[in-house]
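[[Per-residue structure]]
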Amino acid sequence: MAIRYLLKRSARARTMRLVVHPDARVVVTAPLSFSPGTIERFITKHSAWLQRKVAETTGRRVIQVRRSKITSLKQRALALASARCAHFAKHYGVQYNKITIRAQKSRWGSCSRAGNLSFNYKIAVLPSRVADYIIVHELCHLAEMNHSKKFWDLVARLIPRHKDLRRELRKVAVVYR
C-alpha cells in the first residue's frame, strides 16, 4: 500500500523525521541533501509503523481551530470554566482559588495543591458534556488529589457516564488550520 505524505525539506534537519498528525496526515521532514530514493527507502522501512499510526487515527473526531481564533477561544474557555466551576463547586462543597487558561499540548486540565485550577483553552471547542467532565474531574481533585476509587465515586456523583466521556475525549483531536 502506497503511503501518501507531505515532504518538507529543511536546511536545519540532520536526520529524517516522520510525524503522523491526529487527522492522519503524514509529514516527512528530510535534510536538503537527501535524495528522493533515500527518502522513499526510509518511508518503506517504516511503513508498518506508519500504517499502524494512521490506523490509530481512524475514528477520531477532528476539531479544526484557526490560529487567529485562539485569543477568543481562551476568553470563551475562561468564561465557560468560571461559570461551570462555580456551578459544580456548590454541589461538591469545595472551594478553589483561581482559574487559569493555558495552551497545553497534552493536558486538558490540572489542579494544584494550592487549589488553583488550570484548563486547556481547547475546552471551548468541545461538546459541553465533555467540557463538564473535565471541569468536574479537576474539581474533584480538590477533595481527592489522586485517582482512587473514592475520587471516581465523587466524579460519578454528577457525571455518571464519566467512563464513556473519558473514552470520547481520548478520540478527540484538535488541529490547527
Observations:
- The radius of gyration is 20 Å.
- The helical segments are 36-45, 47-57, 70-92, 128-140, 149-158, 162-170.
